[in-house]
Specification:
Structural class: alpha/beta
Order of helices and strands: EHEHHEEHEHEHEHHEHEEHEHHH
CATH class: Alpha Beta
Number of domains: 1
Bound molecules: pseudouridine-5'-monophosphate, manganese (II) ion
Radius of gyration: 18 Å
Largest sheet: 11 strands, mixed
Number of strands: 11
CATH superfamily: Indigoidine synthase domain
Helix content: 40-55%
Shape: globular
CATH topology: Indigoidine synthase fold
Number of helices: 13
Strand content: 5-15%
Distance between the termini: 32 Å
Length: 303
Amino acid sequence: MTAPLALHPEVQEAIAAHRPVVALESTIITHGMPYPENVRTARAVEAEVRRAGAIPATIAVMDGRIRVGLEEAGIERLARAEHVMKLSRADLAVCLATGALGSTTVAATMIAARLAGIEVFATGGIGGVHRGADQSFDISADLQELAQTRVTVVSAGAKAILDLPKTLEVLETLGVPVIAVGQDELPAFWSRRSGLRAPLRLDAPEEIAAAHLMRARLGLPGGQLVANPIPAEAEIPLEEIEAVVARSIATAEAQGVAAKAVTPFLLDLIFDLTEGRSLTANTALVLANARLAAAIAKAIVAG
Ligand code: PSU
Ligand code: MN
């Protein structure tokens, strides 16, 4: 009994030859960005991984298999489809068993990457503890996944739509290392600053790779969360985005948006309220994360 994995030949060869590979998620394509910017960004991120010397592997579920490494046609199909399941750990098996089309969140991408033997994964932002979680209990399954699946996830921190202090507390409880890159402060996705000190800091990809390999030597099951600040020129300052975030959350609550719909709803509204600036920032930070992830993947295979 083996998992229904379909590795792209290029990805399969790279893994077999111990060359660097970077996994990429697909929920950002289907639920994180509007068409056609989502397709443009997905392609640009793959190109960035290649330029940085690694092989990109965008992951999604199609026709009963986990596809690891999508062709352009696959990305286009996902981006255009009307109904795509947003897959986390809970939904992955149902989607595969029923042959539905599904995009993978951070949690599901980590599971797939691990099954395929990919150690590093680049994304934009992870899910976390939502504001008002004391009432809604809305805590992303991404956090649990980081605790149990050994993949290093390169993010730009967590979005200001989340309760960042609570997100850090849960990650600490779960034993997930949260590593800021190049600064002491935890970056907050669109903003380089969050006002919160990151639990850990490493500045070189080689150090992050060494810590990843050390976790394996210790037999620790979970991954690492790398928080790479958005490039300064693309940043939206925290004070500026805060008002937009507060308005968006109020709207989501008023409309009774819940469960899986919350994050996509907020992202969409914030895009409108910032007149697309949030999307420009999002693209810039994903590209920067792709570069860093490629450097970490290179250092892991060298180590
Ligand atoms: N945060 C972002 N952009 C995204 C997501 C989160 O800034 O696209 C996506 C990721 O795929 C993440 C998922 O894994 O949303 C988390 O969803 P939820 O909050 O429902 O767990
Ligand atoms: Mn949620």
